[in-house]
Design brief:
By secondary structure, this protein is mainly alpha-helical. It has one domain (82-385): Rossmann fold. It contains 18 helices and 4 strands. It has helices spanning 7-18, 29-43, 52-72, 95-104, 113-117, 131-147, 166-169, 176-181, 185-192, 197-216, 231-242, 255-270, 279-301, 314-319, 321-331, 338-350, 370-376, 378-385; strands at residues 83-87, 224-227, 247-252, 309-313. A 4-stranded parallel sheet has the order 2-1-3-4. Helix 4 packs across helix 16, helix 10 (197-216) packs across helix 11 (231-242) and helix 12 crosses helix 13 (279-301).
């Protein structure tokens, strides 16, 4: 008999692991219950407790720690999170390079991978020395790459590099991460239709905690650069409720080059852990998710002032990353200087695609054809790619 997850058991385990009991505002219970129900019904996990169960319990532990942090450090609630921009393109559109270019600027900052994995100091850790978490994150990356050895060819993973804030949003149980890692398609469509404002407000509180720690280490407050495809896949309206005037950077690429690649990434995360995962069904799922996301984005863009969205074509990030980064800085109202240019040059050198193994996949494996993708996204291609 397949072992099933239970919300109350997971919550009690989190309480036991921390000795804490205050989860704060219980708005998250509805998405948590929906996620657990869909995992139990559809995910077909070989070991639910060690995969989704461990991830969910870890998220619950962090929710308890979030509440406790503000009790222990009340001044964290006064931290203002200034958001320079959010990069909102579909996955595999060059958004990672754009993220790293902007975050390289001494004028801006972004989340470190180790911060998203371990947002709270470990027991016994000094406030001004996060080395224990950095070492734990390095161990986690090593483990992840041993579990998914082909992932290095798909997406760069480095505990000391920058990362997406969607990892923090996983703690809200409204996140595209979950249907990317498990065949829970109904959950993916459901979460995309929810009101994400409570999740983004929780993200704001996680960011206050992280910024409070940085300031305690003597770092200067700087505007943040966010980046995750989760915005176009469901959370953009919520983001704009919390940061209504934030600049949005939309990266664009032919979906024929994007969709099979993303399906391949999801397959690498799912194929060995699920008995119900079917590669040939993934193309239809992500085609629908991408199309619905782009339709929602188009409706939102119609309501925004001119200039709030900056569009970036993928070829520009490949042929002229330096110029693209400088153009974006100017679009954010920041004048590129010598320090920015040097930092970007160093980032470009470090992130050369040739340094990583080649990502191999075939569209047909996921029930996709180039002709079908071109037809499904013809309007998007015409509008943004000419």
């Amino acid at each position: 008999m397949t072992e099933h997850l239970n919300v109350e058991t997971l919550m009690e385990s989190a309480r036991g692991a921390t000795g804490l009991s205050d989860f704060g505002n219980d708005w998250f219970l509805a998405p948590l219950r929906r996620l657990v129900d869909d995992v139990n019904r559809d995910a077909g996990l070989v070991s639910p407790e060690s995969s989704a169960g461990a991830r969910i319990q870890g998220a619950l532990v962090d929710r308890l720690q979030l509440e406790q942090y503000f009790k222990d450090h009340p001044t964290a609630a006064a931290e203002r999170i200034d958001l320079a921009c959010a990069i909102i393109g579909l996955p595999r559109t060059g958004s990672t390079m754009v993220h790293r270019l902007l975050a390289a600027s001494p004028k801006l900052t972004a989340l470190w991978w180790w911060e998203t994995a371990f947002p709270f100091p470990l027991p016994g850790e000094a406030m001004d020395d996060p080395a224990p978490r950095q070492e734990a994150a390095k161990g986690m990356v090593d483990w992840l790459l041993s579990e998914w050895p082909d992932f290095e060819s798909i997406d760069p993973m480095d505990s000391m590099a920058i990362n997406e804030e969607v990892v923090l949003l996983d703690r809200t149980f409204l996140s595209t991460t979950y249907d990317s890692m498990m065949p829970i398609h109904a959950y993916g469509h459901w979460q995309a239709e929810q009101d994400h404002e409570p999740a983004i407000r929780d993200l704001y509180r996680f960011m206050q905690v992280i910024q409070h720690q940085r300031v305690a280490r003597g770092e200067t407050r700087r505007p943040w650069v966010f980046k995750t495809p989760h915005y176009v896949m469901g959370a953009l309206a919520g983001l704009l409720k919390v940061w209504p005037e934030v600049k949005l950077v939309m990266t664009h690429r032919d979906v024929g080059d994007v969709l099979p690649s993303y399906c391949s990434m999801c397959a690498s995360l799912s194929v060995n852990s699920s008995t119900s995962y079917r590669k040939e069904m993934q193309g239809a799922h992500w085609t629908k998710r991408f199309r619905e996301g782009l339709d929602r984005l188009a409706a939102i863009r119609d309501t925004l002032p001119a200039g709030q969205v900056i569009d970036i074509a993928y070829p520009d990030t490949v042929t002229d990353p330096q110029g693209t980064g400088e153009r974006l800085l100017r679009g954010l109202g920041l004048a590129p200087d010598a320090d920015d240019r040097l930092a970007m040059q160093q980032t470009i050198a470090v992130n050369a695609r040739e340094a990583r193994p080649k990502h191999k996949y075939a569209a047909a494996d996921f029930g996709l054809t180039p002709e079908g993708i071109a037809a499904d996204f013809a309007d998007y291609h015409k509008k943004y790619l000419g």
